[in-house]
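User: Structure with S-adenosylmethionine, tokens only please.
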Amino acid sequence: MRGSRTWKREVAADAIAGMSAYLAWSQAAYRDRQIRNIEDMSLLSAVFGRNCPSFGIWAIEADLGRVLADELERRPRLVVELGSGASTVLIAGLLHRHGTGQLISIEHDRRFADATAERVQELGLGERVRIVLAPLRRQLVGTTWTSWYDADAVLDAMGDTKIDLLLVDGPPAVTRWSRWPAIEVLGSRLAEDGVVLADDGRNRWQRATALRWAHDHHDLRLYWLDTLKGTWRIEVSSAPESDLKRMLRRARRRINPTPVGFARWAVPR
Ligand SMILES: C[S@@+](CC[C@H](N)C(=O)[O-])C[C@H]1O[C@@H](n2cnc3c(N)ncnc32)[C@H](O)[C@@H]1O
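Assistant:
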């Protein structure tokens, strides 16, 4: 009897020790992300000076700003973002510095569209960015009913140039599939080596969205960036992937979709 009680106590103590170790580890991982975010903030502040956009809360975090800055080094011709604000100022500012590239910023809310337009004009970035007001409309995309930007307005704004970089940071993620139409509507407009960055990747709906994109589109490769809010990076790839590779990817995704500690480079998922 006494032996059994001791045994149970030992199991309970081991379980508590395991849980504490896990908590300490995830706190350390969170602290790491915050430190990297601060590093990225100081880096971007050094570039933008007093015109540095305010990051965080509704806006992108500085670490995603740094990822965007790295992407823009590829000198994209056309960048499209869904959801305007700090990211608009950052992207337009860097395109302006590089002296090449255009940004189309899609916004559903007139107040934010106007405020962002005013800010980019103030900073003299007007010629690099076009802000397009596209109100949210309940619509059937593929087989899914969802409330998304008026798809006709979005497609009309695009013209013929292929999208080199697409940032998915809107509309506000208020329902499971609110951001899912992004690739369904704009996927065919992505350049051959186009890249999609989807913010708020830790949100379970955004995670479901990214996994659904990867599941439904075999020409897309999914990667995880362990940023503060979590970033999904999706690359268009024309190289076919073997069934075995795809199976392994799927298994890795199932076991651990959002691995810790790789904010600076993309982990295949
Ligand atoms: C996640 S925010 C997009 C932010 C934008 N990409 C940026 O970096 O600032 C998505 C949408 O939320 C709305 N929004 C932005 N700031 C907001 C605020 N402070 N309160 C409520 N809605 C906001 C805007 O309509 C925006 O398009």
